[in-house]
Amino acid sequence: MHSFQYRNQQLHCEGVDLERVAEKFGTPLYVYSAGTITDHYDRLDRALGELDRRICYAAKANSNRAILSLLARAGAGFDIVSGGELFRVLAAGGKAESCTFAGVGKSRDEIEYALDERVHSFNVESEAELELINRVAKAKGVRAPIAVRVNPEVAAGHHKYISTGTSKNKFGIAIDRVAAVYEKASRLPNVLLRGVQMHLGSQITDAQPFADAITKLRPLVVDLKGRYGIEFFSIGGGVGIVYESSVESGSEAWWEGALGAAQRALTIDDYASAIVPPLRGLGLRILLEPGRLLAGNAGVLLTRVRYIKRTAQKEFVIVDAGMNDLIRPALYQSYHEIVPVRRSSDPARKRVDVVGPVCESGDFFAQDRELSKMQEGDLVAIMSAGAYGFAMASNYNSRPLPAEALVNADRCALIRERQTYRDLVRGERDPGF
Ligand code: LLP
């Protein structure tokens, strides 16, 4: 489900006209639908109803406090990858004991902070990290709860930067080393073996790799439970979403089975029916770490057309958002649908590049794409920008970070102020020489 629909030719988020939101808060502006996020959470939770489960939202996808707080209230735990994310979760009213702390390069300070706050577990990604966690826990006189992240050697994920489940990348511990690592960990006095973890990659639009990896790890998981009494099996995140659909053509089937040029949605039910059978009867709590699935289709980036520029070869639509606001097209050649906020009655379409103001040729949102005709001042929505959108934004070209707003039914609130020029230089110092 997503809650972006045209009403009277105006694109709405839930009950709120996006034109009005842009007038109120300016552009570029991220707008999120609270209803979509909680709907996705509830549906995933229900689809896994027969399992003992906990959904730990991957905070990296969108870590605005209001979003974290919405999910904490819905009952979610959190998958965190830094001290900063732990701080955010706590600031949003989430509980440390619902947090699993992942990441290949945790610092000593982060480990100390997470131990002090009593996170649910550390996902250990190397033997060196295991030893450091043990030392830090010893110095504090505590036992650090851990799970080892197993690299399942199952390839999946739509782009090489976000495929993580094979030994070609830095994540996890090779499956044939895992038994030895648990054995070693079981002899460390300040470590408590609490679970086992895996993650395949991101934007996976086929359920089979998830089922294959679970099936592959199952004997190992059963063995670890028998030997060490582990309590949970985290199967990671990575469920893909639909980026190509057509809100413009009036389709409401963005999520459920929508067909884009090349994409079929992996529905929550498809995913659940693939993963539940191999997880049945394990007698372990199953942890899931979805990020994009919950937030991706729940957000848009609103941007206004500044200029139309024609060259001998192309027509450029220059908008006020740039790659610093949404880097996915530049970084992963990702497709994001672009639609007008006011739908025109003119059926004419034009092949254009939609680009930002940043001084890089990689600063584009669409290239050679047929879109309905646009004019200076038009407001457009870049769809499916709720995950890894603002979270990856930067100040490149000294552009202030965009604002963020949250819609709930017919209400809309600013959840992050737009940065000012003053914010850009805050913390910078004159060296005095
Ligand atoms: N768990 C672990 C261990 C992860 O590394 C990730 C994502 C997740 C869960 C959540 O994955 P999701 O359910 O959101 O696919 N910036 C990229 C995506 C990077 C994902 C990194 N890890 C993008 O914009 O596509």
Task: Tell me what the structure shows.
By secondary structure, this protein is an alpha/beta fold. 28% of the residues lie in helices and 25% in strands. The chain has twelve helices and 21 strands. It has helices at 18-25, 34-47, 65-74, 83-91, 108-117, 127-140, 178-186, 208-228, 268-279, 292-295, 328-332, 421-425; strands spanning 4-7, 10-13, 16-17, 29-33, 53-58, 77-80, 99-101, 121-124, 144-151, 173-174, 191-198, 232-234, 285-288, 299-310, 315-319, 338-340, 349-355, 364-372, 379-382, 403-408, 411-416. A hairpin with a 4-residue loop joins strand 14 and strand 15. Helix 2 (34-47) packs parallel to helix 3 (65-74) and helix 8 (208-228) runs parallel beside helix 9 (268-279). Residues 248-262 have low confidence and may be disordered. The structure holds ligand LLP. Ligand LLP binds at residues 58, 61, 79, 102, 162, 199, 202-203, 236-239, 289-293, 328, 332, 387-388.
Please name the defining characteristics of this protein:
433 residues, 9-stranded mixed beta sheet, 21 strands, binds ligand LLP
* Helix vs. strand class: alpha/beta
Main beta sheet strand tally, sense and closure: 9 strands, mixed
Percent strand:
25-35%
Which shape, going by the Cα principal axes? globular
Which compounds are bound in this model? ligand LLP
Percentage of residues in helical conformation: 25-40%
First-to-last CA distance: 58 Å
Give me the number of helical elements: 12
Mean of pLDDT: 93
